[in-house]
# Entry
Amino acid sequence: MGEIKTKQTESDVHEFINSFASTEQKKKDSFELLKLMQDFTGSEPKMWGSSIIGFGKYHYKSDR
# Structure
């Protein structure tokens, strides 16, 4: 079986947004969306790989 390529990291979500968002409006929108997703999921935001923000974990199982 192959290795999972996208793994949860200890990178800071806020630092990622600050480096990614090129305008103040994009930063404001990004942090508002971050808060909305955190409130909805009840989970803290975590970085997955170098460019994915995730909320929580779920292990999918198949019949195989």
Remarks:
- The chain has a mean pLDDT of 92.
- Strands lie at 45-48, 52-55.
- The longest strand covers residues 45-48.
- Residues 24-41 form the longest helix (18 residues).
